[in-house]
Amino acid sequence: MIIRKYQENDCEELAKLFYDTVHNVNCKDYTKEQLDVWATGEVNIQQWNTSFLTHESFVAVEGNKIVGFGDIDKTGYLDRLYVHKDAQGKGIATALCEKLENAVAATEIVTHTSITAKPFFEKRGYVMLKEQQVFRKGIALTNYIMEKKK
């Protein structure tokens, strides 16, 4: 596996990976209705591309296939971290997270994590600041605001 900087032509593949991961990995912690409003399958590619380009964004590649991605902004907000459903448990999220955390000068890293990802972040030294309900199309999704001091 290699980790490289995001490239504009990655965006559509990342959108598909995001959808597949949410619907196949997060399904143990969220209902189908929640998954459907979280990952609708209709990502605004132009908006995603712009955000990836303005953040520190990395992709993990095995062979010719992207198996994970993540991005963080300059303030230390870790926005997205997703690993392909067939590549879970191989250290990909750990490698991406290391790269992201070290890519910014911020002294605190903050993320809004799913129920599914919470144990991963806890093992990395993140602490929960708050549990919250995020509403998408009137459907509540539980997530956690977590922080790690560098």
Task: Give the SSE map.
Elements: E1 2-5, H1 11-25, H2 32-38, H3 45-54, E2 56-62, E3 65-72, E4 77-83, H4 92-102, E5 108-114, H5 118-123, E6 127-136, E7 139-149
Parallel strand pairs: 4-5
Antiparallel strand pairs: 1-2, 2-3, 3-4, 5-7, 6-7
Short structural summary:
Strands 1-2-3-4-5-7-6 form a 7-stranded mixed beta sheet, with helices on both faces.
Main traits of this protein?
globular; 36% strand; alpha+beta; 7-stranded mixed beta sheet; Aminopeptidase; 33% helix; 5 helices; 150 residues
Overall description:
The chain is of the alpha+beta class. The longest helix is centred in the first third of the chain and has 15 residues, at 11-25. The two termini are 26 Å apart. The chain is globular, with a radius of gyration of 15 Å. Strands 1-2-3-4-5-7-6 form a 7-stranded mixed β-sheet, with helices on both faces. The model has no long low-confidence stretch (mean pLDDT 97). It has helices at 11-25, 32-38, 45-54, 92-102, 118-123; strands at residues 2-5, 56-62, 65-72, 77-83, 108-114, 127-136, 139-149.
Overall 3D form: globular
Mean pLDDT across the residues is: 97
Q: Could you tell me how far the N terminus lies from the C terminus, measured between alpha carbons in angstroms?
A: 26 Å
Number of strands: 7
Unreliably modeled segments? none
Q: Which series of helices and strands comes N to C?
A: EHHHEEEHEHEE
Instruction: Please tell me the CATH architecture of the domain at 2-105 by its name.
Output: 3-Layer(aba) Sandwich
Largest sheet: 7 strands, mixed
User: What count of helical segments does DSSP give?
Assistant: 5
Spatial strand sequence of the major β-sheet:
1-2-3-4-5-7-6
Query: Rounded to an integer, what's the Rg over CA atoms?
Result: 15 Å
Question: What percent of residues are in strands?
Answer: 35-45%
CATH homologous superfamily label of the domain at 2-105: Gcn5-related N-acetyltransferase (GNAT)
Structural class, judged by helices and strands?
alpha+beta
Name the helicity range. 25-40%
